[in-house]
Write a structure and sequence with these properties.
Number of helices: 18
Number of strands: 10
Distance between the termini: 136 Å
Structural class: alpha+beta
Largest sheet: 6 strands, antiparallel
Order of helices and strands: HHHEHHHHEHEEEHHHEEHHEHEHHHHE
Oligomer: single chain
Strand content: 5-15%
């Protein structure tokens, strides 16, 4: 080698080192967004000043709701935009809310910074939540399918090849090689197994392995050979992690891991808890729809009353203006000034009532899942209940303690912790497993051959599968394996934790029951309170109407001042609004009472049901139904494993049948007609009745003398 060639080699090694270092540096820097590089001109740092500090947007294309994109502008007080009146019943409003809302909305969260729909979408409740929980693959919170997957057969297989060459620094060993002092080994491994777990915690596995080796070392029977076996293994826990009770609660038993919430039963309870959460949110949504429906009814009634008051104020202003101009009455100037102020005051109240009406209608639209404006304006078609609703306290309390979703959810939580506590107690024992295995071995020069004769042995070891199927090379093992953490600190801590959580859940259930009794008591008081106020306001409205009629006659006769007349008219409008307001509050109190009793969904015709089963599940259910129909009850035997779901009808579904006349409730649950009701109320009037607003100039005098 010349000196020039040596220099070129050094330069080549130097360039290789530089390229290798650049590649390693690129790997260490990680993945970054490529920046724009310019190789001509001055250095440009605008990338770091602008592009690197800009907010990025995800590359996601979704189709927006056409009802949102093409919605018209909402009506306003100054632009009421005459629209078609849509008379909507309460049942139809609830049906719209249940049908349109895949995401369950809450009235209180609207425009709030803590609204989970906008600030934390992962916390919102949807119609898909029970199915999401059912299909959850999270090992810490598994769904039913994930829990059942522990009993699926697990198939594993692998295939590997290798070669190894080593120089042997040994004269005797090296002399036995066919290639100088280098020992060459070629190998391959094939492994496959199927493992199945049973309900009692035992596992059964079948495995099939082959190992191929080839070497240049002499004095071997064959230069290459296949060794393999077919093996069955069975492992059965006898103490910790054993039994159907443990497996159905905790799932697969993993030594050293004390998690007890991965079984099929716990997964099913988690699904029931998810259903309870969903039902609770649907109940709150239906309640919000009812409250908004009656508030919209009140807004229409208030608007109608203020319209009538404004029309009367306008007419009175025109009358006083005419009297002032002709001088037909003493003090007509004062009357005209007061009439002018009264008109604009009533006009202000009309505008305020119209704004409230539009806000209430928009809130109801949001809750039932309608666009902002579809060319129609909702007007309640149903009238509020004007009959007295009398319920028996003890029956209502019993019903609420049975039907409230919150209590059912908490009882599911208690049942889950009770089952997990039994599983935790199972783990406070040594891990003792019974193990057994049986194996059939195979050996041969070739893996598979029709001719078993190898020309060297009398057994015929040419085919490895042939020797395997003979079954004359077997092995077996049988015994026990035991492990015991000294002190069982982790298992005892887990058991203590479950006991404390269970005690807390039971105390929470007691607190919830006490809270429900207070809620029901408050609802009873509200129903009676607002009914009495509605009755009183009804008489107040009649008295105000009579007073206004008398004062108008006295004013026309010149015996009372104008301010007394204006005050009486304002009192009449306030009494009209107060009556309808108390009536709406009374109906909202009835809705609250149904919520506290847990019967709101049923009384509104809303029923929740789980999805359909697999076809195989129906066949299995039918088979078991036929089996039970021919069976006899064994009263002295206990169910193994114990049931975790109550059977039979709930207490509120069993009809009340008193055995003695003294047991008959003195005030049965019934409806009696309100004395204040005098037939159906007139239909509410919508914004189409909005009269043209007169200008601020004095009105034209009335025709005539």
């Amino acid at each position: 080698m010349t000196l020039g060639e040596s220099s070129r080699n050094r330069r080549k090694r130097l360039w290789r080192s530089v390229v290798l270092g650049a590649c390693l540096a690129g790997q260490l820097t990680g993945c970054r967004t490529p920046k724009q590089i310019h190789y001509f001109g001055d250095a440009d740092l605008q990338y770091y000043k602008q592009q690197a500090t800009q907010v990025d947007f995800p590359h996601v294309h979704t189709e927006s709701d056409p009802g949102v994109n093409f919605s018209d502008a909402p009506p306003t007080v100054r632009d009421p935009s005459q629209q078609e009146i849509w008379d909507l019943g309460l049942a139809d409003a609830i049906q719209l809310a249940v049908t349109n809302n895949k995401i369950i909305k809450a009235r209180a969260a609207f425009k709030s910074p803590a609204n989970p729909l906008m600030s934390n979408p992962e916390r919102v409740v949807s119609t898909l939540d029970p199915a999401i929980q059912e299909s959850s693959a999270n090992p810490l919170n598994p769904g039913v399918e994930e829990a059942l997957s522990a009993f699926d057969a697990q198939f594993k297989t692998s295939m590997k090849w290798g070669r190894d060459e080593n120089v042997q620094n040994n004269f005797f060993l090296g002399g036995g090689l066919g290639n100088g002092q280098t020992l060459t080994n070629e190998n391959a491994q094939f492994r496959s197994s199927v493992e199945k777990m049973f309900a009692n915690g035992g596992t059964f596995a079948v495995s099939h392995d082959w190992n191929y080796t080839a070497t240049n070392q002499r004095f071997n029977l064959f230069p290459s050979v296949y060794r393999g076996y077919v093996r069955t293994d069975y492992r059965q826990p006898l103490l910790a992690g054993s039994g159907v009770d443990y497996t159905r609660v905790a799932g697969r038993s993993i030594p050293g891991f004390n998690f007890t919430g991965g079984g099929v039963v716990i997964a099913r309870i988690n699904s029931d808890i998810s259903i309870a959460d969903f039902e609770l949110n649907v109940t709150n949504m239906v309640r919000d729809v009812e409250d908004l429906y009656w508030e919209l009814y009140l807004a229409y009634r208030t608007y109608d009353a203020e319209l009538s008051a404004r029309a009367a104020a306008l007419q009175f202003w025109r009358t006083t203006k005419r009297r002032m101009e002709v001088g037909a009455r003493k003090g007509a100037v004062v009357d005209e000034v007061q009439a002018r102020e009264n008109y604009f005051s009533s006009r202000m109240r009309v505008e305020n009532a119209l704004g409230t009406l539009y806000a209430s209608e928009g809130a109801l639209r949001r809750m039932v899942g309608l666009p902002v404006n579809d060319g129609r304006i909702i007007r309640p078609a149903d009238e509020p209940l004007t009959a007295e609703y009398t319920a028996d306290w003890h029956m209502a309390l019993s019903e609420s303690l049975v039907r409230r979703v919150e209590l059912r959810r908490q009882k599911w939580q208690i049942k889950s912790l009770e089952l997990q506590l039994t599983a935790a107690e199972n783990l406070i024992r040594p891990r003792l497993d019974f193990v057994a295995g049986y194996q059939v071995n195979g050996f041969g020069d070739n893996l598979l051959s029709y001719d078993a004769a190898d020309g060297q042995t009398t057994e015929g070891l040419n085919s490895a599968y042939t020797t395997l199927t003979r079954g004359d090379q077997t092995s077996w093992d049988l015994g026990f394996e035991m492990s015991l953490p000294i002190g069982l600190r982790s298992a005892l801590a887990n058991k203590r934790n479950m006991e404390l959580r269970l005690a807390k859940s039971r105390a929470l259930l007691n607190a919830q029951e006490l809270e429900i009794s207070h809620e029901l008591s408050n609802s009873f008081q509200l129903v009676d309170w607002w009914y009495q106020l509605a009755e009183t306001n009804f008489h107040r409205r009649n008295a105000a109407a009579k007073e206004t009629e008398v004062i108008e006659q006295e004013y026309d006769a010149g015996r009372v001042p104008v301010d007394l007349l204006l005050r009486s008219r304002a009192e009449l409008a306030a009494a009209e609004t107060g009556y309808h307001s108390a009536l709406v509050k009374y109906n909202q109190a009835l809705t609250d009472l149904r919520v506290r009793k847990g019967s709101l969904l049923e009384e509104n015709g809303v029923y929740l049901a789980e999805g359909g089963w697999e076809p195989q599940a129906y066949d299995e259910a039918l088979r078991r139904a036929w089996a039970r129909s021919y069976a006899y009850d064994a009263k002295h035997l206990a169910t193994v494993p114990p049931e975790f779901v109550e059977g039979g009808q709930p207490a509120w579904a069993v009809p009340y049948a008193p055995t003695d006349i003294s047991d008959v409730p003195t005030v049965p649950e019934a409806e009696t007609q309100l004395p204040i009701s005098q037939g159906p109320l007139p239909a509410p009037e919508g914004p189409s009745r909005l009269n043209p607003v007169p200008s601020d100039s004095p009105p034209a005098p009335l025709p005539g003398n």
